[in-house]
Design a protein that fits this description.
Rossmann fold, 13 helices, metal-binding, transferase, 7-stranded mixed β-sheet, alpha/beta, single chain, about 45% helix, S-adenosylmethionine-dependent methyltransferase, binds S-adenosylmethionine, methyltransferase activity
């Protein structure tokens, strides 16, 4: 029984952000993710203007449905969905009304927005900060985006920022002492032997495969799926990215605490980040295997465009960003309060000590993968 509980703790990731009450809460510590919103804006405008075919979409009812998957507690999710709603309403429907005499303003649809995250997301905090002035109906949809969340052919645009790289669980092999993929003393795969990376990649294939299958069923024909999340440019290794060096600093901080006897070695061995940063070729392969999407845009955003370290966010803030994104996960494994301060204060210090190495990695910044797909 104890054994079972321990195993579950090791592999059940179900991540959520620091809750609305924590001083590291996501709402105040999500400027890195906000950058992704900025990256998406012009791309989404172009996509809606050129690819969205209203005739095909709104044939049966007059409600336009948008979902944001992995919404957290805001504020980025509100900016993202508002932008989508505005683009569809003003740049698509109103243009149609002004150019077609048969169309009238009664052809304007109502908008229904669905905010999705894991069941343990702080939905109360999310709903408390819903913009009062919004021009859409809002609903929360709890559950994992790796499975079905909506009825068939229900949605018109699905958006997800900074979330699709989360795995449904830590690959079980990496916490299995008998496996060649046992990730002893490490918390991610960037600096680990190849079998560890292979185990992460296999888990991502399974999860993203499930994600695409579910979306292909939920999207109406002609509907769009738009994703942005961290990835690694083709031909590059995860260890050559800046994010990998930063995660390594968190790892070194935990290792120091093990050496000081504050944490047990077992606690380190059993803890792994449940995120995977895919290459574009891996995403392309999965989309092609799925066969439900007709148009595919897939690019690594130019780091110049997605740069955030120079945009006022300092190197040491990486540790705060990781804490805000993963606080609950750390707290569940290592315990909360003081121990978290020790881990992240130590990580900030390591980041400062390794600043030169971090700033000189082959792949600067946080490379972002932008994926836009249209349902056949
Ligand atoms: C870094 S936050 C991004 C929040 C927001 N989209 C933004 O751009 O600021 C990642 C979110 O993805 C959610 N998430 C991770 N795995 C998920 C899953 N399987 N299903 C639904 N949400 C998930 C996490 O709980 C978290 O709230």
């Amino acid at each position: 029984m104890e054994q079972e509980k321990k195993k579950k703790m090791q592999t059940d990731s179900s991540p959520t952000m620091a809750t609305g009450n924590s001083s590291y809460n996501y709402a105040n510590n999500s400027s890195a993710q906000r950058k992704m919103t900025d990256v998406m804006k012009p791309r989404i405008e172009e996509l809606i203007a050129n690819k969205l075919d209203l005739g095909r979409l709104a044939a049966n009812d007059n409600t336009f449905r948008v979902a944001d998957l992995g919404c957290s507690i805001g504020p980025n999710t509100f900016l993202n969905v508002q932008h989508i709603v505005e683009q569809v309403r003003h740049n698509k429907y109103q243009t149609m009304i002004s150019t077609h005499s048969a169309a009238s303003s009664s052809s304007l649809p109502e908008f229904h927005v669905f905010f999705n995250d894991q069941i343990n997301n702080d939905f109360n905090a999310l709903f408390r900060s819903l913009p009062l002035e919004r021009d859409y109906f809002a609903a929360g949809v709890p559950g994992s985006f790796h499975t079905r969340l909506f009825p068939k052919s229900f949605l018109h645009i699905v958006h997800s920022a900074s979330s699709a790289h989360w795995l449904s669980r830590v690959p079980p092999e990496v916490v299995d002492r008998g496996s060649p993929a046992w990730n002893r003393g490490m918390i991610h795969y960037g600096e680990s032997p190849k079998p560890v990376e292979d185990a992460y990649r296999a888990q991502f294939r399974k999860d993203m495969g499930g994600f695409l299958k579910a979306r292909s069923e939920e999207l109406a024909s002609g509907g769009m799926l738009v994703l942005v999340f961290p990835g690694v440019p083709d031909g590059m290794l995860q260890s050559e990215t800046q994010i990998s060096s930063v995660i390594n600093c968190v790892n070194l901080s935990i290792l120091d605490l093990v050496r000081q006897g504050v944490l047990e070695e077992d606690q380190l061995d059993n803890f792994n980040f449940p995120v995977y940063f895919p290459h574009p070729w891996e995403m392309r392969e999965l989309v092609e295997e799925n066969q439900s999407f007709s148009s595919i845009e897939l690019e690594v955003v130019d780091p110049e465009e997605s740069t955030w370290l120079q945009g006022g966010v300092g190197l040491r803030e990486w540790a705060v960003a990781i804490r805000a994104a993963m606080e609950e996960l750390f707290a569940r494994h290592f315990g909360g309060g003081e121990i978290l301060d020790k881990i992240f204060d130590g990580a900030s210090q390591k980041i400062a000590e390794h600043a030169e190495v971090i700033m000189n990695t082959k792949c600067k910044e946080l490379p972002l993968l932008y994926v836009a797909l249209q349902r056949k």
